[in-house]
Amino acid sequence: MDTGCQLFKEIPLEEYFVEKEPYYVPVGNEVEVFTAAYKNLLPVILKGPTGCGKTRFMEYMAYRLKRPLITVACHEDLTATDLIGRFLIKGESIEWSDGPLTKAVKSGAICYLDEVVEARKDTIVVIHPLTDDRRIIPVDKLGVVMKAPAGFMLAVSYNPGYQSIVKDLKQSTRQRFVSIDFDYPPSDLEIQIVAHESGAGKEMARSLVEIGSRIRNFKHHGLEEGVSTRLLIYAGKLIHEGIEPRKACQIAMVRPITDNPDLQVSLDEIISAIM
Ligand code: ADP
Questions:
Q1: Beta bridge partners of 71
Q2: Contact assessment for residue 151 and residue 13, using Cβ atoms and an 8 Å cutoff
Q3: Among 163, 166, 216, which residue's Cα sits nearest to residue 51?
Q4: Distance between CA atoms of 222 and 6, rounded to whole angstroms?
Q5: Lowest mean pLDDT among 158-162, 191-195, 202-206, 266-270
Q6: How many Å is the maximal CA-CA distance in the chain?
Q7: How many whole angstroms separate alpha carbon 181 and alpha carbon 202?
Q8: Ligand 1 within 6 A of 236 CB?
Q9: Contact, 148 vs 139, CB < 8 A?
Q10: Which atom of ligand 1 lies at the shortest distance from residue 58's CA?
Q11: Which of 61, 125, 132, 201 is most buried, by CB atoms within 10 Å?
Q12: pLDDT digits (tens, 9 = 90+) for 123-146
């Protein structure tokens, strides 16, 4: 393998640019923190439950920083090769195809690895040299080491609620990132977000958020995870389309989060008390 680092010419990736400003309501100082991390070439970990705005935040930041955004939804079969790239047979010839991480390094993009802990362990080996001040990615199959340009940034998301001892980020990995905590937005902002995204109107959004916050209280009483902002928006969208509000809440906010019939009855009662 070539031990020298090669700074590849940035390649433009038009389709990965976020053209229109995404709707994003800042909840704390996450925009400032992320911008400071980006300027200082620091990788970032976004921690928080599913559906609370991490992906939307990444789209917004990519727009603000005017960088392409390459998002990878990590899953248990995702390997280092998937991230780096592979040779593919194309007709008579064999062609190299960049994986999303290599693409991001080459083009100085922001690479967002969603739910990174789900990926296979060998992916961590690839991530590590990109997260310290070497900022390199070894592409063994091509025999090269690429150095990331200043525009490149690695961001990963992680949901502490899901993790088990088997699936958790090791300290040696965590301590390579600065961490921004995410949670469901405070009520006043969540009402604004649900109203905007669902079209259901402010008063309806207020009721949905009220139901949501009561359901979230069940988190340590049988619920694995509270109801997400995303699900509140889904309920609002169904209502906006004319689905009866209680029914909409049951199918968008209760059934997706629990299969336990007793718990479903308790949560349905919350809905009836508010709607
Ligand atoms: P995550 O990536 O955390 O699973 P998403 O970013 O997909 O969640 O959030 C789900 C939806 O909630 C988004 O599509 C967006 O409509 C809405 N949302 C959540 N938080 C915000 C926010 N702060 N500003 C604007 N929209 C938000």
A1: 112
A2: no
A3: 216
A4: 53
A5: 158-162
A6: 67
A7: 27
A8: no
A9: no
A10: 6
A11: 61
A12: 988 999 999 999 999 999 999 999
Helix or strand holding residue 107 (H, E):
helix 100-107
State how far the Cα of 182 lies from the Cα of 26, in Å rounded to an integer.
11
Element (H, E) at 6: strand 5-6
Listed residue (185, 184, 187, 206) closest to 195, CA to CA: 206
Task: List Cβ neighbours of 272 (8 Å cut-off, separation of 6 or more).
Answer: 246
Select from 95, 155, 82 the least CA-distant residue to 122.
82
- How many Å apart are CA 150 and CA 153, to the nearest integer? 8
CB-based contacts of 65, cutoff 8 Å, min separation 6 = 35, 38, 110
The pTM for the full model equals 0.93
Mutate to test the pocket of ligand 1, among 18, 56, 189, 253 (most ligand atoms within 8 A of CB): 56
Residue tagged 């995410």 (tokens): 182
The tokens describing 49, both together, are 């439950």
Give, in degrees to the nearest 5, the angle at Cα 68 between 56 and 122: 85
C-beta of 25 in contact with ligand 1 (< 6 A)? yes
